[in-house]
Design a protein that fits this description.
The complex is a heterodimer of chains A (about 120) and B (about 270). Chain A has about 120 residues and is an alpha/beta fold. Helices cover about 45% and strands about 20% of the residues of chain A. In chain A, helix 2 (about 35-45) packs parallel to helix 3. Chain A is globular, with a radius of gyration of 13 Å. By secondary structure, chain B is α+β, with helices and mostly antiparallel strands. Chain B folds into two domains: about 1-110; about 115-260, 2-Layer Sandwich (Beta-Lactamase), CATH 3.30.450.40. Chain B has helices spanning about 1-110, 115-130, 170-175, 225-270; strands at about 135-140, 145-155, 165, 180, 200-205, 210-220. A six-stranded antiparallel β-sheet of chain B has the order 3-2-1-6-5-4, sandwiched between helices. The chains are: A alpha/beta (about 120), B alpha+beta (about 270). Chains A and B meet through helix 1 of A and helix 1 and helix 2 of B.
């Protein structure tokens, strides 16, 4: 059962993403409100994939991505950024830090489900 | 002499008989040869006629198979067409499902609290994350002054947003008439006119307008509005209005209750002698 960590400070967006993830068979969603909360949840549970916002209080998404990539235990976890920042340079920066994919808001649920399924399928192989 | 002649006659007779026997044998052999040839001919003809019958049978079968293949091809094409139909219907249903999920989450969040400021925050979140607006304000009607007063905003400081008289400009007209406004030009110009939003949605409880959501610019990646966006605008017009109105009333009544309670506590206190 893949564990998907949704890191998002907006409760509406968090619920929306979690709702979409429930449609992926056998998946389990763990929710975190910011980067620090995400790291706490990661130490308590196995995480297979991270969906992460950029602009968050306490610790933003980019900092979280760099910390995850710098940790040998977590470094291979796929990270998908979901953000309102739609500029090409923001995307390049996030991918350079180590994010696997970048989805600007407002997201298309089908696109998100497809992307997550692709990464989870690749993990199985 | 007679004896010799008799022997010679008998020899001749025997010789003649032998020759006749020889000729007869030859005739028999010829006849036999002819018969063999005839048998071979007949056998060949029987065989040929069998082949022809078989060929005819095979040809009939081939024709039947070809008919079957053609019919199967036709059925396959039909099924393929049906499959395409189902696939496109599936995509439509999926999209509708996702849209309903978005609407469900939005309305669930809107009615999840009675805290006025939290309801405003949820409306902001919906407009940013689900619609993709960059700069916008939420204005509520102040019944005392008959003005639209900015109560929350994104990308603009609330204090910078002007108060708008009911009926004044685009925003005031939307508040007065209760009809949504959508600009045809959604280009990202970078310039903002606070009285000329690109979208203005009235917040209505039935036909009573309590305020408006005024959008001035969209996120750079948002090129235009989808059907889902219009559904969300409709949802906001009704549900956000109800949620804002009820939370405002609740917050006011809570405040009044606290005041009354304090007043009662004061009255209950024993007068100092």
């Amino acid at each position: 059962m893949p564990n998907i960590l949704v890191v998002e400070d907006s409760p509406t967006m968090r619920q929306l993403i979690s709702f979409a993830m429930k449609r992926i068979p056998n998946s389990h969603v763990i929710e975190a409100t910011d980067g620090v909360d995400a790291l706490k949840k990661m130490s308590a549970d196995t995480v297979d994939l991270i969906l992460c916002d950029i602009n968050m209080p306490v610790m933003d998404g980019l900092k979280l991505v760099s910390l995850v990539r710098g940790n040998p235990v977590y470094k291979d976890i796929p990270i998908i950024i979901i953000t309102t920042e739609g500029a090409e340079e923001d995307k390049k920066r996030a991918l350079a830090i180590g994010a696997n994919a970048y989805l600007p808001k407002p997201i298309q649920t089908q696109e998100l489900i497809k992307l997550v399924t692709t990464y989870l399928t690749a993990l199985k192989k | 002499m007679d004896k010799e002649t008799g022997v010679s006659n008998k020899a001749d007779e025997f010789f003649q008989m032998f020759r006749r026997g020889e000729e007869f044998t030859k005739d028999l052999l010829k006849e036999n040869e002819k018969l063999r040839y005839r048998i071979a001919e007949l056998e060949e003809s029987v065989e040929r006629s069998g082949d022809e019958a078989r060929t005819k049978l095979y040809e009939e079968r081939i024709a039947l198979f070809e008919e079957e293949i053609a019919s199967l091809r036709e059925k396959f094409a039909q099924v393929e067409e049906e499959n395409k139909d189902f696939a496109s219907k599936y995509i439509e249903v999926e999209e509708e499902n996702n849209n309903l999920a978005n609407l469900y989450v939005a309305s669930y969040q809107l009615h999840s609290t009675l805290d006025f400021s939290e309801v405003l925050r949820i409306v902001l979140e919906i407009v940013i994350n689900l619609i993709g607006a960059e700069k916008f304000t939420i204005l509520l009607i102040d019944d005392k002054t008959n003005e639209l007063v900015p109560v929350a905003s994104e990308g603009i400081t609330t204090t910078d947003a002007p108060r708008v008289k009911i009926g004044q400009g685009r925003v005031g007209t939307v508040a007065k008439k209760g009809d949504s406004y959508f600009s045809e030009n959604l280009e990202h110009t970078g310039k903002i006119d606070m009285l000329e939003p690109i979208v203005c949605i009235p917040l209505k409880i039935k036909e009573h307008v309590i305020g408006v959501i005024s959008i001035y610019s969209l996120l750079m990646q948002k090129a235009g509005f989808s059907n889902m966006d219009y559904e969300l605008f409709n949802l906001l017009a009704g549900h956000a209005a109800t949620a804002i109105f009820s939370s405002k009333l609740y917050t006011q009544s809570e405040r009044k209750l606290t005041t009354i309670q304090s007043f009662l506590d004061l009255l209950k206190e024993k007068p100092k002698k």
